[in-house]
Amino acid sequence: MTTELRADKPAVEEDDADQFRPGMLEGFKRHLPDPDPGETAEWIAALDDVHRNAGRERADFLLRKVLKRARQLRIGLPGLIQSRYINTISPEQEPAFPGDEQMELRIRRIIRWNAALMVLRANHQSPGIGGHLSTYASSASLYEVGFNHFFRGKDDGSSGDQIFFQGHAAPGIYSRAFLEGRLTVAQLDHFRREVVRGQGLSSYPHPRLMPDFWEYPTVSMGLGPIAAIYQARFNRYLNARGIADTSVSRVWSFPGDGEMDEPEAVGALTLAAREGLDNLTFVLNCNLQRLDGPVRGNGKIIQELEALFTGAGWNVIKVIWAREWDALLAQDYDGALVEAMNETVDGEWQRYSVESGAYIREHFFGRDPRLLAMVEHLSDDDLRHLRRGGHDYRKIYAAYVAATQHRGQPTVILAHTVKGWTLGSGAEARNITHQMKKLNLDELRKFRDRLELPIPDRKLADAPYFHPGAESPEVKYMLERRLALGGCVPKRVVRAKLLSPPADKVFAEFAQGTSEKQAASTTMAFARLVRNLVRDPEWGKRVVPIIPDEARTFGMEVLFREIGIYAAFGQKYEPVDSKLVLSYTEKESGQLLEEGITEAGSMASLQAAGTSYATHGQITVPFYIFYSMFFQRTMDQLWAFGDIRGRGFLLGATAGRTTLNGEGLQHEDGHSHLLASAVPNLRGYDAAFAYEVAMIVRDGLKRMYVNGEDVFYYLTLYNQDYPMPSMPSGCEEGILAGLYLYRGAVQQAKHRAQILGSGVILLEALRAQEILAEKFDVAADVWSATSYQQLRDEALSCERWNRLHAGEKPRVPYVTRTLEGAPGPIVAACDYVKLVPDMVARWMPRGFTALGTDGFGRSDTRASLRRFFEVDAEHIAIAVLSALCEQGQIAPGIVNRAIQDFGIGPDYLDPWRQ
Q: What are phi and psi of 643, to 5 degrees?
């Protein structure tokens, strides 16, 4: 029973459901020689017969039995999620390389030189300024194949491709842009010196500092991969909803192998596979080194990553060996070479990269006489130049073609490279290579010689850049390739049209408030506001609600049926609540992104949606609502969102340390506003009432999408229900500025005071106002402090202006001039740590006391928690009385009696020490 098997003829029927898709990988691989092709043909024919006569299930059963028996016999087959340590694509499957390889080699060498020289010159001019030589040196070929043949630009008006460059490779990207004429020598000479706007180049990809160049910040390890995955998913979302045609856009991510230790780098891999994101390609630069040493010195990182990605459902392409190994593998009839490759750990591969050919002959090939015989015709120099696959244009090109042709899965290309490749023996594959910033004159000479650049010795001491000229064949070739692919990349383009303001009716109902008998939370008010906005003719389709699996908790389930939950393949089941009005409804054109239990994933969606105005030229308006405590979990992504000039809303729901009263220490947030205050372009607000929420959201929509400002908003929402008042007249400016008078003193009294309340603690301030008036003859005004951050920012601006304009009339901060005419001591209380109101302490016109919830949270009733953290009405009243006592307006005995009457233990431990 024999059958002739040919690589150009499929072994399955054309109409089979699992038919190989047409392309270069069709047919059986012949990468390794077959010592008995007849026997192989019999096995394959037998399987074909079983499949034909008994069906797929029987064939599957028999194969699994054979594999099980193989493991029992300890034959040594790897798991199904892992293949041998060789290239996925064999030589005969490789497509012809369409470019001029010699020309591209010359271009690549010039770019390598200028990338390294940029860092050298920067550290010569400013010692210690830093930079990285080695990352781009290892990945230059990976990028150049993409630049010359795959990466699509935006000059044709499309979205192009979205490319997440490895952060430490930035010098190489700048070097290419220099040859393209997009950057000048002066800019290269100001690498990492960018205080003067537009003069220098960012250390890493930073869109905020280079808004016309970089698109995505990636140097914070792990954030690039997860952002790329959710960008690819958001591209599909936009296409499904008819907002933007992203059908030909591809997302490329270039992580490093060491970077894959970050949880964010691997946390969303299964989502990419589950949603069939075949518009996504990871190119993993496996140079086997972290910052200080090998990634898996005692193991094999490429094999580990293959298992990880295969298990997560990705298409995996390994590019391990360059073309010089093909002839050797073709002779490996006994499998001795493959076995040696499988057994050699990464620490040894790193060592072989720096050793002589004689060492490689002795220690690698010398382990088996068959291997020695295999390379006896090769010189030691030949062995020294057996390259890794990530430095071979043909191998990389073949992998990229296969990745872009593959359907139904995302693809990862695991490319074996050498860190510091071409930089010379002092840097190449050394553990210190990541920290190297300089090359001496002799190393520079060798580097030039290796790159074969026409730079005379007499000029090397000046470490000159090399540009072959705008009319040179190299530059013309580069620009022709980029023109054919839609223009130069990276390039950030903002072409979205700004919107008209939303209709008044979206916000009108919130100014009216509710009746005294109708209680609501600010979270419920926000849900109603989003629903109104979704129904707006111009804005509705652009709203992108993003929720990490808590829609019902946040009152957002009203949107389930109205706008649907986005699902790449629709809803293939009937939900258990299908007969309910608010049933769980998924559909391909769904608008709501319900992300599951992942704040990191939700933040990545926020990034994709919040930058759509630049990436795709289409404004989308993200509202990401989450447990406010988890603000801290994704602070790194939040900082990146500020860098990327993202626009949108973060809604910290179930906010405050005493409001989410039953959840305990790790869920009770008392510090997110403090963290938010550190982000320069984030506007943070702590709203107490529905009309405040509406005013703040309206302001955000206007600033970001009508005026086009690069800011974003953080707004805390509470889950405590209480009647919502109508909006006082004339408070609009104060709400947005951060402070306004909500309720003046209820009656005339002997003493005066000012109480500032934020969020739900404003209710305690109002109760304290009544206590002080009824029992202590103190008339207190109550103010709503919606944003200490905004008050501080404005005060700092005034302070700076005064410092730089001596002799001119000084500017008075808003918080000062607002409170200076209001008599009496000032007490501020909030559901956050005291440092939040303390932000403006030095600009207070008089004595100031801050009350807050410093310490760990805990579970109890709201009343008990507010008493424990000393922010309830009684503690606010005590703070006012104590301040009046310090001013000599009341006797100490009054304060002490009040403490006793309120049942407050003066000798209790500080709550933040418990």
A: -65, -40
